[in-house]
Design brief:
single chain, alpha+beta, three-stranded antiparallel sheet
């Protein structure tokens, strides 16, 4: 059989790196423990840390996330020189979105501002996946507000604020889920219209109110004319009713302490004199 030359296998730099990093890390951890033991009890003031009930600590050992997730609340232990940690506040934060100039779907320029309530839902992801989770969430809230308002006409923006706020909250929550952020609520504060548009809308509303007032007045006149017609028919059937109406009118005038009383002359009397004159 022919001899086969077998060359030794040489691992590449990428393949050697994990083993070398593990070995170096183990050595540094051991040295750190030795320093802690030799400097006791003074090292305990450096190794023990405390986080509040509303905080969590994300620990990195030699640049890598420490297993077990975020620590806290309470006391936790770190090794000097090789461990570093970041505090994450889990309380709800409020962001007042500055006024955004938006062009609506029906080509009307409006200024809209809103309020966003959010909190950190996963402390580890908010540190490891994004550089600044709070700043990124605020910028995304501004762009989401402009994009949402730009796809709706003006009358929907003015009348459907709750629906728009709910859609914005769902959109922001889905986008910030990979950053460890939970968007709890979005509220639209104010929608500012241009002065000329406000005057035009006020004039339109005033014209609509005047039109409704004229229609109501016309309907009232129509009902009043029908009532007068029915009253005249009743009075025409009974001549004595007309005399009673005259007396009632005189009673009403005299009750107001007037010095002059206008007495209505019955038309039948004039007709009688005219007929007597024609007969003579």
């Amino acid at each position: 059989m022919a001899d086969v030359d077998e060359k030794p296998y040489i691992a590449s730099a990428e393949e050697r790196r994990p083993d070398e990093a593990t070995t170096c890390g183990t050595i540094l951890v051991v040295l750190s423990w030795i320093v802690v033991v030799l400097t006791m009890p003074f090292s305990l003031f450096v190794c023990f840390k405390v986080v509040q009930e509303y905080e969590r600590a994300v620990i990195f050992r030699l640049g890598r996330l420490l297993s077990g997730g975020a620590k806290g609340p309470g006391i936790f232990f770190i090794l000097p020189c090789i461990d570093c940690y970041a505090r994450v506040d889990l309380r709800t934060r409020t962001y007042d979105v500055p006024p955004q100039e938006v062009l609506t779907k029906d080509s009307v320029t409006v200024s809209v501002d809103a309020v966003v309530y959010y909190r950190v839902n996963n402390a580890t992801i908010s540190i490891a996946n994004v550089e600044n989770a709070h700043h990124s969430t605020r910028l995304l809230a501004q762009t989401t507000l402009r994009n949402t308002m730009g796809t709706r006409p003006l009358h929907e923006i003015l009348s459907e604020r709750e629906t728009i706020s709910g859609n914005m909250q769902i959109s922001l929550d889905e986008a910030t889920d990979t950053w460890g952020i939970k968007v709890e609520r979005v509220e639209i504060k104010d929608v500012r219209l241009p002065v000329q548009l406000q005057r035009a809308m006020a004039a339109e509303a005033e014209a609509a109110r005047e039109a409704r007032a004229k229609v109501i007045a016309a309907e009232g006149e129509q009902k009043a004319s029908r009532a007068l017609r029915e009253a005249s028919e009743v009075i025409g059937d009974s001549p004595a009713a007309l005399q009673l109406r005259y007396l009632q009118t005189l009673n009403t005038i005299s009750a107001e302490k007037n010095s002059t009383i206008v007495f209505p002359l019955p038309i039948d009397m004039l007709t009688y004199f005219m007929k007597a004159k024609e007969a003579s």
